[in-house]
Amino acid sequence: MLTIGAFARASRLSPKALRLYDELELLRPARVDPRSGYRYYAPEQLERARLVAWLRRLGMPLTGIREVCALGPADAAREIRAYWARVEADTAVRRDLAAFLVDHLLDEPRKDTTMLELRYCAHSDRGRVRPVNQDTAYAGARLLAVADGFGPAGAPASSAAVEALRFLDAEELPAGDVLNVLEDAVRGASEAVRDATEGSEDDGTTLTALLWTGSRLALVHIGDSRVYLLRDTALFRVTHDHTVVQSLIDEGRLTPEEATAHPQRSLLLKALGTAAPDLRLRDAAPGDRYLLCSDGLPAVLPDARIRRLLGAGSPDSAVRALVEAANEAGGPDNVSCVVADVVRADA
What we know:
The chain is an alpha+beta fold. Helices cover 39% and strands 22% of the residues.
């Protein structure tokens, strides 16, 4: 048996940490002296103790460590991989915000600043199978939004979410404070959805929106609607799906090809009001074309087809072509598209 001091040195955990883990029933000593209260540990406990130490260095919370320690090696490895995927996703959001703040603080006013604006079009379609359209799409001079409702009250939920953001389309926004403004507006949208669904947990909506500041786009995203960027004929996916299937892809348990036929491909992990949305800022350049769409589009059209259709003609013709192609592919779901071009104001 090892004393707590000897065990601490061998496991690289402090005696204070070992006492805490004992109280939390995460790492109990093998024996406690009934008279002195001294803790003694068995040598075979070192492997678990080292695992706890490594997970703490990784930043995993104690509740997560307890779950990992209760699993077998294969399941524990998958859980650690999933945890780190969540950390990287969160870090990416904060990295984008940090980059914006650095640029904002160091950016000096320029006399030759090019004035940019958006040219846009939005359309929502019921599809060929669903009895009603639960999507809502909106496009304005400053606000672009798509919401995909679910449950019996899905249609009023998506409509309420977008309607709650529409005031942003008519207000001048301070570029340095736009994320805070958008975050406050999303909280209002969450309250509007709760009112529209009377607090039902079976009804709700996703929300994906871009807010134009005149030189940058602020993104809010929660759910499985998407934003794509077409730049110089290359298509980039801007958002990350908050779905069970995407989490399995992130963990390496599913390939993107397998995900298209997975029975839970539409099962959401997050929806508006259930968790914090992704918030970030993006620089815009003349010639950029953005697509916001509900999941009814990528469910039936591969990215290569989306790129071809998105790159043809005006925003209006691109929107019509995308919706028509989704319906020709069977139209199993509602499909909504918003297409917006970033152009010079004098173009």
